[in-house]
Structures are given as C-alpha cells and as structure tokens.
Amino acid sequence: MPTNHTHHTSSSRPLERTLMAFCLLAALSGVVVYLATPTVYTDLLMLHLSPMDRYPIRATLVLGGMLLVIATVMVGVVQHWRWLFWLLLIAFGASILDIPVTILQLMGVVPSLFPVWYSLYRMGVALVEVAIAVWMLQIYRHHGVWAMGKKNTRP
C-alpha cells in the first residue's frame, strides 16, 4: 500500500516543476530586462539618471531583492511550505487584474510607465500566472495543499 508521502510526491511533482520553471524564467527575465533595458527599472523607481549612469545602484538593489525573493520562493516550493502555497495561489490569481489594467494602458486610458513590449510581456505572464492559480486550486480541491492529501476532519 503506498504511503501518503509517496502519493504526495507523485501528485505534487508536476506542480513543483512548473513553479520552479516559472521562478527560473522570472529570474532570467528580470536579469535580461535589466541588462537590455534598465529604464524599465529606473522608470518604475522614478529615478532621474545622467547619461553616464546606465545601471544605478538602486535599480541593481531592486533586481537583487527580486532575485532573493525568487530564490526564497524556490526553497519554499521544494520544502512545500503551506503558507507559500496560499500566498502563490492568491498572488497568481490576483494577476488577472493586470490584464484589464494593461489593456487600459495600451488604450491610453490609464498612464503607463513601461514600453508597449514590456506591458504586453507582463500581460502574457499574468495569463500564465492565472492558469497556474487555477491549476493550484484544482490540486487543492482534489488532493489538498501541495497535493499532500486532505486532512481528515471527521472524528
């Protein structure tokens, strides 16, 4: 008879892999955007730069902080932190709000800090996040948090 741990491992592995891949791509994306177009970071921080200051320290610190958060999330995914499951579910689900906001920005109704290509990229990422949130919700409903099985609430 398989143990609960065996069931947990086989059921949660696809979710783990997906979240790890998402985190790695998010980290790579953050670095590539920073190196290719650092103005995305400087505009977000509302920094006024001199032409000689292509990679300001504040923008570099924001990137470093972002990478640290992503690394922490990756550790939490591997360790199956229960609170992280819920945090990711809420954060990824809330990404659905980014889609209409981006559309309004592209229409000129709401001001945008970002170039059009970056806004479209963010909207694509939001679609992926919402799909992951829906999948996480289905996993929770059928198998519990991180697919570790549901707690028995009956006496």
Short description:
The protein has 155 residues and is an all-alpha fold. The protein is built from 6 helices and no strands.
Question: What characteristics describe this protein?
Answer:
mainly alpha, 73% helix, 0% strand
Count helical runs. Answer: 6
Strand content: under 5%
CA-based shape: globular
Largest sheet: none
H/E series: HHHHHH
- Give the N-terminus to C-terminus distance in angstroms: 23 Å
Radius of gyration: 19 Å
Q: Any low-confidence stretches, pLDDT <50, length ≥5? A: 1-7
| Overall pLDDT confidence | 86
What percent of the residues sit in helical stretches (DSSP H or I)?
A: over 70%
Outline the secondary-structure elements.
Blueprint: H1 4-36, H2 39-44, H3 57-79, H4 82-94, H5 98-107, H6 116-143
What does this protein look like?
With 155 residues, the protein is mostly helical. It has one domain (4-147). The protein is built from six helices and no strands. It has helices at 4-36, 39-44, 57-79, 82-94, 98-107, 116-143. The chain is globular. The two termini are 23 Å apart.
